[in-house]
Amino acid sequence: MAVAIDTSLETKAINSIRTLSIDAVQQANSGHPGMPLGAAPMAYVLWTEFLRHNPRDPKWPNRDRFVLSGGHGSMLLYSLLYLTGYDLPLNELKRFRQLGSMTPGHPELGRAPGVEVTTGPLGQGFGNGVGMAIAEAFLAARYNRPDHEIINHSTYGIVSDGDIMEGVAAESASLAGHLGLGKLIYLYDQNEITLAGTSGISFTEDVPKRFEALGWHTRTIDGQDTDAVRRALDEARAEHARPSLICSQTIIGFGSPKANTFGVHGSPLGPEAVKATKEALDWPLTPPFYVPDDALALFRGAEEAGDAAQHEWQSRFEAYLAAYPTEAAELIRALAGELPEGWDADLPKWEAGGKPLATRKASGETIAAFFPKIPTFIGGSADLNPSTNTGMKGAGDFQRPDGNPDPSIQQGLLGGPWGYDGRNIHFGVREHAMGSAVNGMAAHGGVIPFGATFLVFSDYCRPAIRLAALSHLKSIFVFTHDSIAVGEDGPTHEPVEQVMSLLTIPNLTLVRPADANETVDAWRIALTNSGATAVILSRQDLAILDRTGATGTALQGGYILAGGEGDPDVVLIGTGSEVELAVNARGLLAEHGVQARVVSLPSWEVFDTQKAAYKRRVLGPAGTPRVSVEAGTTLGWCRYTGARGAHVGIDTFGASGPGAEVLAHFGFTKERVAATALRLLGKDDLARQIDQTDGGDTAGEEAEGDEGHS
Questions:
Q1: Alpha carbons 522 and 501: distance in angstroms, whole number
Q2: Is 238 part of any domain?
Q3: Do 410 and 284 lie in a common domain?
Q4: Cα(604)–Cα(496) distance, rounded to whole angstroms?
């Protein structure tokens, strides 16, 4: 049943949000009108009275951040952006969900000013907000000085029933409560309706009690009562030691004939229901997209208020610059996303033939060399620092700054400050939350964030990795224990499909270095890349490769490691730990009169950006026989092996046993690689001869031939 309401200026402003939203959804004949209709009152209060922002400068560093985690209600955000004066023309609201518009179906970073993160997959925005609050707390602790408070802002969000149900939100809420992120405030649009019905058919928990147990401050209010929203936000802002969840009981589809039904969640109202809704709201039926002048003027007050707030902050920053020029210069550089001069001056180098070293350990030494020079490099692992080698010793632990840590939890701390100025984040066993928080930190700006876990658990991070790539966020994901060489832990912990799976994500730069020196280059790529990067590292020790005759470097994504003279009989293309195997197979082939070239291809994405002539030089002329060698699925390798290609890989799950034995069992031996190349060259008798000397079995050999296989 339609609900009639009064016509005060406040209500007129709220109804402007509502009607803009339903008109846009109806014109697109697609979208979610229910959330904007129900959540408009609390969004109005937040955006006009509490949110400190400047529509004329959406990138003002000290602005409050706002996350619409329930991204299906995107028209709520687009209406607010237009009404408050962001550079989002009304015509773009009329082009909602149309190809090339600034108003896609779910908010996307970079499409409309004022959109802070890409949301849509439920729960991810919730986790992003936690990362934003972490970044704010770290930057404030590092750069603020007495009487010079340069970083001081809050992170607000509107989250939905669906967000609260998602596992990533549960992990993120647990992390935020543990860290005591008091400047994180979420309005929970508790309309108790989901796409498939009332939430009660699947969700009956006591949400406030759960969040209180997680260390959150909670309040339950009538979300349609603007005064109740004001009181709750005031109380949340006064709570400094805990994040806040304001459970706002709202009516989905408020004012429409479909109010309080799941039919209004994901479908346009329809012309007749739009008419009935406007009548219930005492709103003109025509023209569509109508906003009264006095309501628009009320919203546009955000422009002058934002200018004033930013001007006052700029004055304080100039005083800070005069008093603390070194810190100010460092902060300016960090906010601009620039690396300090000389950050890479002391990166380690290893001599060929030296003691073998796992690339995860080489990565740890590389991080130790650069992190003191990049003061805003911050992150951690999902409870795996001893294994991922990502802990920064002496850089402190990011924890709530309420006294020294209890002696009972000293183990695992990395030394240095305990508090929000610590740079080691202990994400706990929360890969979902870690990935989402890393993205939120990257979206906040001013920091270079990373998260680390085993490669097989990248599947837990995948939604966040995908959104990092889609959003062009400078998020760094470090994955160790990269192959079946993990060994005894068995197939549950042995990644087989994960590298290729990650390679299918557009805009993600993946780097799998072959040895310690390539690992240094992997970090150069990650730190200079403007987008998302995955660095894939080995558990087992790898030889330090000889680059004496190399053509190119790992920084080019792929290069000739050995055999660059003339045209080769066959090209062996390896990544990561299998490059060493290809080198050994090359020596065996040479004993039988076959000239093989070894190509290390640590990054497909970087290699593909090179000039065509360079790529031809590396891979050899068209038609050159090529063999890919990687301890993972062979799907996709035909793009480089070409018409005369073969593959040594593993298209089954792994097995439990000592790593070297598992590798041999699946055919990762120099004999198997050499025999595969010989068969490709039509030298079957010689291949059988080599087979007989191979101590492994044939489980890992992929079909070979003249027509290419994948």
A1: 19
A2: yes
A3: no
A4: 18
* Amino acid identity, position 241: A
Inside any domain, residue 291: yes
Cβ(542)–Cβ(356) below 8 Å: yes
Asked whether residue 535 falls in the same domain as residue 559, the answer is no
Report the distance separating Cα 273 and Cα 255, nearest Å.
10
Q: How confident is the model at residue 210, as a pLDDT? A: 98
Which CATH number does the domain housing residue 625 bear?
3.40.50.920
Catalytic residues: 431
Q: Convert the pLDDT of each residue in 558-609 to its tens digit.
A: 999 999 999 999 999 999 999 999 999 999 999 999 999 999 999 999 999 9
DSSP codes joined into one string, 475-513: -EEEEE--SGGGGGG-TTT--SSHHHHHHTSTT-EEE--
Task: Beginning with the edge strand found earlier in the chain, give each strand of the sheet holding 448-454 in spatial order.
Answer: 418-419, 397-398, 424-425, 377-381, 448-454, 476-480, 533-536, 509-511
| pLDDT value at residue 577 | 96
Distance (Å, whole) CA 112 – CA 91: 13
Q: Which domain holds residue 33?
A: 9-305
DSSP code per residue over 88-109 = --HHHHHTTT-TT-S--SS--T
Rounded to 10 deg, the angle between the 670-680 and 684-691 helix axes is 170
Gap between the Cα atoms of 500 and 40, Å rounded: 44
Question: What pLDDT, on the 0 to 100 scale, is given for residue 196?
Answer: 86
Instruction: Please indicate, yes or no, if residue 341 is contained in any of the structural domains.
Output: no
pTM for the predicted model, two decimal places: 0.96
Q: What is the pLDDT of residues 607-634, one digit of tens each?
A: 999 999 999 999 999 999 999 999 999 9
Q: What is the pLDDT of residues 499-526, one digit of tens each?
A: 999 999 999 999 999 999 999 999 999 9
Cα separations in angstroms, 594 against 332, 587, 597, 670: 57, 9, 10, 14
Query: Which segments of the chain have a pLDDT < 70?
Result: 1-7, 403-405, 407-408, 695-710
Number of domains in the chain: 3
Please indicate, yes or no, whether residues 193 and 60 belong to a single structural domain of this protein. Answer: yes
- Quickly count: other Cβ atoms within 10 Å of residue 353's Cβ: 10
Backbone angles phi, psi at 418, to 5 degrees: -105, 115
Question: Is 365 contained in some domain?
Answer: yes
Q: For the residues of 326-361, what is the DSSP string, one character each?
A: HHHHHHHHHHTTPPPTTTTTT-----TTS--EEHHH
